[in-house]
Design brief:
It is built from seven helices and no strands. By secondary structure, it is mostly helical.
Amino acid sequence: MEADDATPAAAITRWKFEVSRQYQHLLDKATPHVARRWIGCLVVALVYVLRVYLVQGFYVVSYGLGIYILNLLIGFLSPQVDPEIIDLDGPTLPTTGSDEFRPFVRRLPEFKFWYSITKAFCIAFVMTFFSAFDVPVFWPILLFYWVVLFTLTMRKQISHMIKHKYVPFSFGKQRYNGKRASAESSSLSDD
């Protein structure tokens, strides 16, 4: 048994497991720090944009990154269960004021959204160091096409939100907390 632990393959496996465990620990520690995570993502994105600007290339990589981020955004704004393709026996979004309150559950949670975007910017940044990814293109056409794609996709997503009456953000929504509810019930019992 000890002979297996001394092999280079076992040592590499153990090292990969330890690095993976430490990386996951760092991610777990970062989870509650939403603002700091997004500021870090913004810094990574600005470094990437600066790199592309200074190199004056890699527009196809940037276009692919933009399409990927658009795809992530759609997942972030969409409910976990799409009301248009839902089985009637499963949970649905409330459609009337008398329906039971159910919080909005995203198809792509905020943490995974942040992690995927940050990882995508890091990968795209690394790609800018390899000339094979610097395909010569006329970048204004790519930018125009991406803006059109973004506009059409967001119009479709917003009309879906309006049709099924859901808002994927929590600001402006009524919050229910235990203290307020208990205070109201005690004032009702005094009457």
